[in-house]
């Protein structure tokens, strides 16, 4: 390993609260080691276009408490092509970058795998997504903050749901994963969660209605994972209107407010630990691994595995919600 490395940091895909804490941690620990750091703007787009600036310790001052990403982010179609990656490689060479630290979700880390397969570049991934859907890590940067944001919103919805004796379907993000829906349902005392991981043929809506929603409560809140296939909260509300016209139904789609806001203490600490560990991993000669956390210990997960496998939802969580929502 080179004594003095030059690294590039970028954030890619959907922004997540805590990404700034991760950028700060990587930057400062690399500078602490005597290395040179480049900030790459707008994810892979900036790598392709050469939107790259040297970072100092001051570049990341007063950022740990800020949501979003100071490096900005993008979803870059050009990087999916060999031509796009060739342009990125040209800039990596031009700036003398020995290793890249990529902070992002599934799609972003998959891009890193492709680049590392084609070119002699060391890549370290940090899991940065509110979806919490990366295999091999218990938590991803931004998930805890988004979860808390959802719970705060659902608590407010509960006030109006109770006052009107209504059923609310609250749609949350998560792409193909139900972590946000399932755990916010538990934390907000919701009556049910409809999540993509529940792949039984049993109709989740009929199940929820069949449990006798009006036995002990006048209002109900159902957390629904966004879904391209399933139709999301609107779909379920429409079905209730048709199949159970006696119920008064409303829908709330929380949307992008789930991605914003000040990162929680948990996310700041997680991001700081993962950022420092990224530089440690490079010092140890690691390449093409995602830094994760398992049972509160830092772990290295081959990026290929992190993006290939689905992260399962613990069935215990499904049971907790079912038992407590009687
Ligand atoms: O991956 C993070 C995420 O917020 C998903 O939960 C959601 O499906 C998607 O990004 C939305 O992406 P965009 O901001 O590009 O619409």
Outline:
The chain has eleven helices and eleven strands. With 326 residues, it is α/β, with parallel strands linked by helices.
Structure notes:
The chain has helices spanning 19-32, 44-49, 82-94, 106-118, 143-164, 179-188, 204-210, 232-243, 265-283, 303-308, 315-324; strands spanning 6-11, 36-40, 52-55, 99-104, 122-127, 167-172, 192-194, 220-225, 249-253, 289-294, 297-302. The chain has 326 residues and is of the alpha/beta class. The strands form 2 sheets. A 7-stranded mixed β-sheet has the order 3-2-1-4-5-10-11, sandwiched between helices. Helix 1 packs parallel to helix 9, helix 5 packs across helix 6 and helix 6 packs parallel to helix 11. It starts with 5 loop residues before the first strand and ends with a helix. The structure holds 6-O-phosphono-beta-D-fructofuranose. The site of 6-O-phosphono-beta-D-fructofuranose has 11 residues, from loops. 6-O-phosphono-beta-D-fructofuranose binds next to loops.
What characterizes the major β-sheet? 7 strands, mixed
Mean of residue pLDDT? 94
Q: Helix coverage percent of residues?
A: 40-55%
- Strand pairing plus helix content: what structural class? alpha/beta
Unreliable sequence segments: none
Strand order of the largest sheet: 3-2-1-4-5-10-11
* Total strand segments: 11
């Amino acid at each position: 390993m080179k004594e003095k490395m030059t690294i590039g940091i970028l954030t890619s895909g959907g922004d997540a609260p805590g990404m700034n804490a991760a950028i700060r941690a990587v930057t400062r620990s690399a500078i602490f080691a005597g290395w040179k750091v480049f900030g790459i703007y707008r994810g892979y787009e900036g790598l392709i276009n050469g939107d790259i600036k040297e970072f100092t310790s001051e570049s990341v001052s007063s950022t740990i408490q800020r949501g979003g990403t100071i490096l900005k982010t993008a979803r870059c179609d050009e990087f999916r092509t060999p031509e796009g990656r060739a342009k990125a490689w040209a800039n990596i060479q031009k700036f003398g970058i020995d290793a890249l630290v990529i902070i992002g979700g599934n799609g972003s880390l998959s891009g890193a795998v492709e680049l590392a397969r084609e070119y002699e570049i060391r890549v370290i991934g940090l899991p940065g997504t509110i979806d919490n859907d990366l295999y091999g890590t218990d938590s991803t940067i931004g998930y805890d903050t988004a979860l808390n944001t959802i719970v705060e919103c659902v608590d407010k919805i509960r006030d109006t749901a109770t006052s009107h004796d209504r059923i609310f379907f609250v749609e949350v993000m998560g792409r193909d994963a139900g972590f946000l829906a399932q755990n916010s349902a538990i934390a907000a005392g919701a009556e049910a969660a409809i999540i993509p991981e529940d792949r039984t043929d049993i109709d989740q809506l009929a199940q929820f209605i069949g449990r006798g929603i009006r036995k002990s409560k006048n209002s109900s809140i159902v957390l629904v994972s966004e879904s391209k296939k399933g139709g999301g909260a609107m779909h379920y509300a429409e079905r209730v209107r048709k199949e159970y016209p006696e119920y008064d139904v409303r829908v709330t789609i929380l949307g992008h407010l789930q991605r914003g806001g000040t990162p929680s203490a948990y996310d700041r600490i997680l991001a700081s630990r993962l950022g420092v560990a990224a530089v440690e991993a490079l010092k140890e000669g690691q390449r093409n691994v995602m830094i994760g956390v398992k049972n509160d210990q830092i772990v290295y997960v081959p990026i290929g595995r992190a993006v290939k496998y689905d992260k399962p939802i613990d069935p215990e969580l499904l049971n907790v919600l079912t038992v407590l929502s009687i």
